[in-house]
Amino acid sequence: MKINNIFNNIKVTKKHIFFLILFAVLVFVGRRVNFSTVIGADNQFFTLFQFFGPIAGAFLGPVVGAISVLFAHGTDYILAGKAFTLINLIRLTPMLFAAIYFGSRKKLFGKPVLGKVFGVAIPLIAMGIYLAHPIGRQAWLYAMFWWVPVIVAILPTKYSNNLILKSFGATFTAHAVGSAAWAWTIPMTPEAWISLIPIVAFERTIFALGIIGSYVGMNVVLAKITDKFNIPTDILHVDKSYLISRLFKFKAKA
Q1: What is the DSSP string of the chain?
Q2: Higher pLDDT, 29 or 219
Q3: Domain that holds residue 174
Q4: How many domains does the chain have?
Q5: pLDDT class of 80 with cuts at 50, 70, 90
Q6: Is the pLDDT of residue 6 over 80?
Q7: Residue 159 lies in a domain
Q8: Which of 145-149, 178-182, 183-187 is the most confident on average?
Q9: What are the two backbone dihedrals, phi and then psi, of residue 35, each rounded to the nearest 5 degrees?
Q10: Closest C-alpha to 19, from 45, 76, 57
Q11: Is the pLDDT at 81 greater than 90, yes or no?
């Protein structure tokens, strides 16, 4: 596969930029609503951004979606006056991979096989990095969460593109990348990692449900926008099968 052919599939238009800025505004607001604390770090929180960050990859495409996440994070840091510390950089990267994962369940760079390769490779690489750490090896059970995105990715496309499954896959991809980096930068005992397993199961389920709700809600809004302003589907990918009217079909009584 030629590199030029890959990048020919990436198109950034003025309308892409508009929605990129819109997403950045949503991130700026969402990151100020704390959901739960990050264990092992002072004054660090999971925020509502965890609920809608990955969906950018579905609406803007996996690559442009990841760019929008990066842009949103950078804008947020600058406007909020945050320092680009190691912890902040670690917290930036997981959502980039989650956005690509969520948006590439059908294809990546125009190739379905690349979407599957990405979905399998990233969690496995993260698992390898985590288990390469002496503490990670002792708490190997914690890394078993990351088989979730791998299993979802290798399923046939009609299943791996299911909203529920890819939402769980995306949030556990973010979890895999973040935990792998965390293991090498933040001192924790094996017991501490193991004790987090039930907490992670609960939090990631909530995050996945949040992603599902955010996607359906945003899909409804963007469907109206695309219809009103005649925005092509190759610019903004709206799935009309997830419109409220399609999800809940009520027949009028005769």
Answers
A1: --HHHHHTT----HHHHHHHHHHHHHHHHHTTSEEEEPTTSTT-EEETHHHHGGGHHHHS-HHHHHHHHHHHHHHHHHHHT----HHHHHHHHHHHHHHHHHHTSS-BTTBHHHHHHHHHHHHHHHHHHHHHSHHHHHTGGGGGGGHHHHHHHHS-HHHHT-HHHHHHHHHHHHHHHHHHHHHHHS---HHHHHHTHHHHHHHHHHHHHHHHHHHHHHHHHHHHHHHHHT--TTTS---GGGSHHHHS--PPP-
A2: 219
A3: 3-244
A4: 1
A5: low
A6: no
A7: yes
A8: 145-149
A9: -105, -50
A10: 57
A11: no
Does any domain span residue 250? no
**Virtual torsion, Cα 43, 193, 120, 65, nearest 10 deg:** -10
Whether the pTM exceeds 0.85: the reply is no
Distances (CA, A) of 160 to 44, 53, 208, 225, 252: 32, 19, 15, 27, 34
In a domain, 251, yes or no: no
Q: Which residues contact 19 (CB under 8 A, 6 or more apart)?
A: 59, 60, 68, 236
The mean pLDDT value for 229-254 works out to 61
For residue 169, tell me if it sits in a domain. Answer: yes
What CA–CA distance (Å, rounded) separates 62 from 97?
Answer: 9
